[in-house]
Design a protein that fits this description.
- The chain has about 475 residues and is an alpha+beta fold.
- It contains 24 helices and 8 strands.
- A hairpin with a 2-residue loop joins strand 7 and strand 8.
């Protein structure tokens, strides 16, 4: 999140800008007071020069601000007369990361050396404070370059091959900052077609399929885009894998794949028999709606799953598939609740789309409207969404950063320490969070500074009873 907030301010134009971007959003540069001077110089709000020419070759590429560990070593050698061995000791002290007295023991040696070579004492103190910040986790330039390359490649794939990017991330779970639900929601907002788990096609992991984009309809109201690849061709569709189904083992999925390669499944009994699936595994598939092509909607499919004969039971004691009653479909809200419970995501409407009328009555503003350019800085604002992340960075002095998601996008929330203490229960327990606060907009970076939190999670439990009111 800190990287995302920094990008609109730093605005990378070349690869080396990404190297700096990776290194500057770290506790070391933040604690050392390097971030704001660099940004001001980057934006031509103050001169980007070093007052001492001999340091220009060390700090010139970072606008006079030390950002990398290697620069700290070079400053010690150029400005304070450190030998290469002493500079390497300083590097090891910075790499010790908060170890007691690690960098502080070099303070007197550094200040005396710089003053002896004609540096202003205040400037020497400032340099030491910046170097001291590296003891709070600074980055070597080589590491930053490696991370920057990964960031660039990832961003290229997300921009030009979003379907490939989504499938790769889903197949790398559990990992990273976002759960599969947020990844899928974002991909669909960018026009990627995501197809449900289906016993006829799904493998254990997510796969790519030829797109029928001209026939596809995206159920979300927030997009009418069709994603295109780097060559201008339509993107493939992403088929969710059987791994998304809670309660289904990988061995069971591999048996399904093997049996399907031999011949398509004709019925649930055929599936259970040829893939050696027990009633529990069949019920997991049915509850996740993966049996829909063979047995109908999930309630109907669960009846079929219940017909699987345990070993040793006579066939005559089991109701035949022809005797299964016709059951009403689940209401939309109940389907969505089941999707989240069994798959961790939904391809139906976002839960907040079903609650939007209720939220509008309480004057909660959709994320898409808040993030539009016409929503002004400083305005009293209400937002509501599913909580996707909570963070309390060690460098944030007790501030908690929360991200909430509605059917139109994400809103970043800042919760100050006094509020996080006063409303701790709402902050840590709410799945659906309402936030009353003040909107902040600065250099394309937007936040809602919370003044009051409301736990609206009970509304989610009412989705199955309210869904018939929404069309």
């Amino acid at each position: 999140r800190a990287q995302m907030s920094m990008l609109p301010r730093l605005r990378p134009r070349e690869f080396y800008d990404l190297v700096i971007q990776v290194a500057i959003v770290r506790p070391g540069p933040i604690q050392g007071g390097m971030v704001h001077p660099f940004l001001r110089r980057r934006q031509n709000l103050e001169p980007a020069h070093c007052p001492y020419p001999e340091l220009e070759k060390v700090l010139g590429r970072t606008l006079g601000v030390p950002i990398f560990q290697e620069q700290a070593m070079q400053i010690a050698m150029e400005a304070a007369g450190f030998s290469p061995d002493e500079a390497d000791e300083l590097r090891r002290a910075m790499a010790a990361w908060r170890r007691s007295g690690s960098v502080e023991r070099f303070r007197l040696r550094l200040l005396q050396g710089m003053i002896a070579k004609g540096y202003d004492e205040q400037f020497a103190e400032q340099i030491f404070l910046q170097l001291q910040g590296f003891g709070e986790y600074g980055f070597p330039e080589s590491h930053s370059a490696s991370f920057a390359r990964l960031a660039y490649c990832s961003a290229w794939f997300k921009c030009h091959e979003p379907a490939v990017f989504l499938a790769a991330l889903l197949n790398s779970q559990p990992m990273g900052f976002y759960a599969p639900s947020q990844l899928v929601q974002d991909a669909r907002r960018h026009g990627v077609e995501v197809r449900p788990v289906d016993i006829r096609y799904s493998e254990w992991e997510a796969t790519l399929e030829p797109s029928t984009f001209e026939e596809a309809t995206f159920q979300q109201d927030t997009t009418n885009k069709t994603a295109q690849g780097s060559a201008g061709l339509p993107q493939p569709a992403v088929r969710l894998g059987l791994c998304q189904i809670k309660g289904l083992s990988r061995n069971a999925a591999l048996r399904i794949e093997q049996a399907r390669r031999q011949a398509p499944f004709r019925s649930t009994q055929d599936l259970a028999s040829r893939a050696s699936l027990d009633r529990k595994e069949m019920n997991a598939l049915a509850a996740a709606n993966a049996l829909q092509p063979l047995a109908g909607e999930r309630r109907q499919a669960q009846w079929h799953a219940a017909l699987q004969r345990p070993p040793g039971m006579l066939r005559s004691t089991i109701i035949s598939e022809n005797q299964v009653p016709l059951l009403p479909d689940m209401p939309e809200g109940e389907q969505i609740v089941n999707d989240y419970r069994l798959l961790g995501l939904t391809l139906g409407r976002h839960p907040l789309a079903l609650l939007r009328t209720r939220l509008d009555q309480q004057r909660f503003i959709p994320a898409e409207r808040l993030l539009s350019s016409d929503w002004p800085d400083g305005r009293l604002t209400r937002a509501c969404g599913l909580v996707t992340t909570r963070q309390r960075p060690g460098t944030a002095k007790g501030v908690v950063f929360v991200t909430i998601e509605d059917e139109t996008g994400h809103v970043n929330i800042i919760v100050r320490p006094e509020l996080s203490i006063r409303q701790h229960a709402e902050l840590v327990n709410a799945q659906l969070l309402g936030v009353y606060g003040v909107w902040q907009r600065h250099e394309s970076v937007c936040h809602l500074v919370a003044g009051r939190l409301v736990d609206l999670t009970p509304l989610l439990g009412a989705l199955h009873t309210r869904s018939r009111d929404f069309h």
